[in-house]
Structure formats: C-alpha cells, structure tokens
Amino acid sequence: MKTFSTLKSMSLAALLATSVAFPVMAATPADTFVIARNTADAITLDPAECFEFTGSRIVANLYERLFMFEPDNLTKLVGGIAESYEFAEDGKSITVKLRPGLTFHSGNPVTANDVAYSLSRAVKLDKTPAFIIKQIGWTADNVDSAVTAVDDGTVKIDILADLSPALVLNLLSSSVASIVDMKEVQKHEVDGDMGYAWLKDHSAGSGPYKLKTWKANELVMLDAFSDYRHGEPAMKRVVIRHVAEPSAQRLLLEKGDVDAAMELTSDQLKGLDGNADVAAQQYPKGYLMYLATNMDHPVLSKPEVREALNYIVDYKGMTDTILDGQYKIHQSFWPSGMWAASLETPYSYNLDKAKALMADAGVEPGTKITIDTLNKSPFKEVAQNVQAALKEVGIDSEIILSDGKTLWPKYRARKHELIVARWGPDYSDPHSNADAFAHNPDNRFEAKLTGKLTWRNAWDASGLTELTNQAAAESDPEKREAIYAELQQKVREDSPFTIMFQAIGTFGQRANVDGFINGVTSDQAYYRTVTKN
User: Fold this and answer.
1) Which domains does the chain have, with CATH numbers?
2) Integer Cα distance of 49 and 471 in angstroms
3) Beta-strand pair 497-510/513-514
C-alpha cells in the first residue's frame, strides 16, 4: 500500500474602493497578499466548470483533491485528501484511505461521501473540464456505481477504461476532481442543479483559503482557513485586484499598493532594475507556441514542406528579441519542467536547407498561402517573422489577424492553411498533450474531434494513435516514459506541427515578499506559502 507523508487588516470597504481608484499607500498590510492581474477571463469558481487561467489559480487555493502537487516539489504527485491508496491486482480499481480529521470551511468533516459526490457531480454536470475524468470511463449513468464510499474514511474507485495507474492518479489530481462539501452544496441546490448556480461565486472546499467575496472585473478576496491541514497560512487574506493594463500594474507595484503584478511585459520588468523595492520573477509555464499546417492543403501537406518549416523559424533570433523573457526554445509537444518531457532541440534557423526542401517538393516560387494567428503580441510578431522567412524560400503569405472568438472556431472547422497558435496541458500527465498532438481515432470531418489538434489539422496520426493508446495503458513508468519520448520524436520529425517555444511566466514582486510559488500548469499557484519580512 502506498502511503503519503503529511507536510506540515484591510477592511472590505477599503479594498472595494481601491479596486477602481488607486490611492497611494505606504504598503499593503503585513498579513495580506495583494495581487494585480487581469481577471477578465474569470467566469466561475465552481471546480466542476472552471477552465480559465485566473479561475483555476483561485480554485487551487479554495479546494483540495485526492492527489496533488505540493509546492516543495512540483514534479512529484502526493496525497492531498488521500492518506494512502492501493490498486487492485488487475488495475481496474483503486481503494483510497482519506486523511483523518480533515474539515471543510463550513466545519463539516471531509468524508468518502464527499469524494463520491464531488466526482459524480463533475461528471453529471458535464461542463468543459469534465472530459478529463470521463477518460476513466465514467458517464452520468455509471459514475454513481463506479465511485462509492466504503465507509466514512474509505472510497473505492472503479477504472472503466484501459489506463495506467499513473495516468489515473494524475487525472484525479486535476482541478475538476476537487472535493466539495456535499452537505454545504446540497443546502444551496435549486431545482436539482447540484449547487451549480451557487458555487459560481461561493466556495465549499477544504483548501488553505475560503472565498470572502468576488466582484467580477473588480476584486477577489480570500480569507485564510484556520483549520487547514498544513496549518493556517501566514497571509490571513489574499486580494486579487482586476487591473487590465500592465502599465497600471507596474505603477501599483512600484507604489507599494500591490505585492505582485502578474502581467508585466519584458520591457517593464527590465525597467524594475535598480529599484531595490521590487524584483522581476520567472517561472516555467506549460503553454507552447507552434505552427500547424492543414493537411488538406495541397502544398503545406507535402512532407518536404513540413520539414522545411522546421528550418524557417528563427528560434534564437526571436527569443533574443521579440520574445525576450517571455518564451524559450522548445520543440516537443510536452513542456519542460514536467515528467517525461523531451528537451531535444534539433532544429535551427537554416534558410538554405529550407529552400532545398521546398525545391525537392516542387514548390513553385510565388506560391501563396495564408497565416492565421491572434491579433495580439507576441503572436502577430512571430507570424511576421515566419512570413518574412517564407518569402525568402519562395512562398508569399498573407497574415490574417483575429481575436480568439474568431480564430479558434475557424481552426476547429479546419478552415485555416498555416496557423501560429498556442496550447497548454489540461492536467499534469503527458497524455494530456499526446492526446492532442499524436492521437486521432477518426479523421473524417464528420467526426468533429475538435479537441484534438491532429483532427483540426486533418492529420490521421497513423501509427501514433495506437502508440498513444499504448502509452496511456502502460503501467511500468520507465516503459511509459520511453513511449512518450518516442512519440515526441515522431511528432517532431513528421507531423503538421512545428513546435517552437515554451512560455516563461514573468511577474513583478515586492522585495519583502517570499514564497509565492507558481508552477507549469495554471492550477499551480500557491498563496499559503507566501510570507512577508
């Protein structure tokens, strides 16, 4: 049996006032952590529905899951609510013992019934992130019998799909698998909605913080949970202020009105040099920037052309200039900083080689294509760089800039030619990205597998789909890691994708703040570790 070890004021009125106006303050309170960020993407704080960057970071501090990544080692999965677990010999079920004595913010005890209810609720609500745990084979019809409370402290989980134990544990560590207070949620149920309307802007968790208030596009306030299993956090309150403009964030940071500013540009971060009161911070992010070719295109689908695209990207030139401090070179579909990531970068800027490959493909000089991308930095600048390189190798291109509401539906409808796009993992297992970049069980247009980048680019991923299935089912960690290494190599060498860069998280922080830890995925933001001196 696997056993986990246990790791051991400002008024509301004043804060609401500062959410719109920015008065000068000497400093934030010693027991309050104030963050400036653009929170416009936050639409819900219900873990069964939340799938946005801002919301995911908040949910991670309100709730706990059976299995989690702790801030002292973001690559090692450990128990959250789970104290121990044991897989059946056939690997088709897992019995989980819960840590004794845990309580929710309401004071209700954390029980196996809460676990069963939470996982069932997420599957039955079937909001965007539900697909993560539905991969275990769960449906609205079978989940109640698949996840059951043996007793108050023990839950039995049936695995109804052919998945490796490691993948199952990682799926159960995702935000959608957060454990909610069943009694508290049911108190606020309306017309059988399982508390859906109420949990959008309330919390019912057992995490280090509980939701005090949320005013959309203004302010989020969290209060420390005194009975949290790791102990009450040093910061008794966390305030997240909606500040859309990075320039305004920087001003607030330098004044001391906020402790951290999350979206400063590289130029603004450099501008902090010489100011002893503030410092630039970096952390690895899992978001990748890549080129993708529509395999229905008569020119871009040619293997020589797709290989040539690997050499028209000025990787170093862009990371040294337009992407300085924002991205690093990365050429595999699984981000660095995570288990099983391939760090090989075999391609470099080489227009002579690209020209030769284009000639081998019979590409006529003056061939015209379109490049779709987001109408924002740095995507449009990367597209312009690619456009200039393509011109050098005989292809004329038109850049089409769109906002996300226009671009992503177009991409999902296979109406692009070449696209500069981004992708990040939905959970901390390489299957998350392998499922997108190397798996396509049905390439027919009618299949509408829009969540798979393979399908969006009309690529059948022949041979790789089977290999991805094999990796997902492999129980031996070393063999599984070797399969993912092979998959990443094969996608690099022959696919519609030219993976170019991995994002670097950057933010500004006051010098007296310590312990604000951020990880590769959007739900790895830890407020409970923050201290001030």
Assistant:
1) 2-244+511-532 (3.40.190.10), 286-504 (3.10.105.10)
2) 28
3) unpaired
